[in-house]
Design brief:
The protein is an alpha/beta fold. It is built from seven helices and four strands, in the order αααβαββαααβ.
C-alpha cells in the first residue's frame, strides 16, 4: 500500500466515530432492522445480532495493511465482536453476527457452528459478495436488510422451530452502533 493510500485509510478511521455510525444508520433505520430481526427470530431457533462499527482502533491499522491484510483484520474484528456480544452463547449454537465496518465499507457474517456447518462455502462466499456489492451501490439499510434475510433463510433451513421446545429470545435484537 502506498503512503498516500495509507494516509487516506488512516484519515477515514480517525474521522469516523460512533456518531458516524448513528448518522450512517439512523434511529428509524435501526428500529426497522431490529423489528426485522425480531420477525426473523420468531420463525427459527437462531439468534441474529447486527453490529455497525464506524472505524477500527488505530492499533489495528499498524503496520499499514495491504488489501488482503485489511480483509483479514476486518474478519478478526468481526470475530472479536462475535465474542464480545456473546453471540456464541446460545443453546443451539446458532448465533449469527452481521458486522459492518463503515471506514472500509466492509461487511462480514460470523456464524456459530450450529449454522456454519450447514452452509457450504460457495454459498457463503456468494452471499457475502452480493452483500458487499449491495453495500457499495445503495443505502446501508437495504444491504443490512438483505443480510438479515439471507441469514434468516439459512436459519429456517438448519434451525427450524420445534413444537416440543420453546423459542427463547436468548440475545438482544437491538442494532449495536459503535
Amino acid at each position: 500500500m502506498s503512503g498516500l493510500a495509507y494516509l487516506r485509510r488512516l484519515g477515514r478511521h480517525l474521522w469516523l466515530d460512533e456518531r458516524a455510525s448513528r448518522r450512517f444508520l439512523g434511529d428509524a433505520a435501526a428500529a426497522r432492522l431490529r423489528r426485522r430481526i425480531e420477525d426473523s427470530e420468531a420463525c427459527h431457533r437462531g439468534e441474529i445480532r447486527l453490529c455497525v462499527e464506524a472505524s477500527l482502533p488505530l492499533r489495528w491499522l499498524w503496520p499499514p495493511p495491504d488489501e488482503a491484510a485489511m480483509a483479514q483484520r476486518v474478519r478478526q474484528r468481526a470475530l472479536d465482536w462475535f465474542a464480545r456480544l456473546r453471540v456464541w452463547d446460545t443453546e443451539d449454537n446458532t448465533g449469527v453476527l452481521i458486522y459492518l465496518l463503515l471506514a472500509e465499507r466492509a461487511i462480514e457474517i460470523v456464524a456459530d457452528r450450529g449454522l456454519a456447518r450447514y452452509v457450504v462455502p460457495g454459498e457463503w462466499d456468494a452471499a457475502l459478495q452480493a452483500l458487499r456489492q449491495r453495500l457499495q451501490r445503495g443505502p446501508p439499510e437495504d444491504a443490512l436488510a438483505q443480510a438479515i434475510d439471507t441469514v434468516d433463510a439459512w436459519l429456517r433451513a438448519c434451525a427450524p422451530l420445534q413444537a416440543t421446545r420453546p423459542n427463547l429470545n436468548e440475545l438482544p435484537d437491538a442494532v449495536v452502533r459503535v
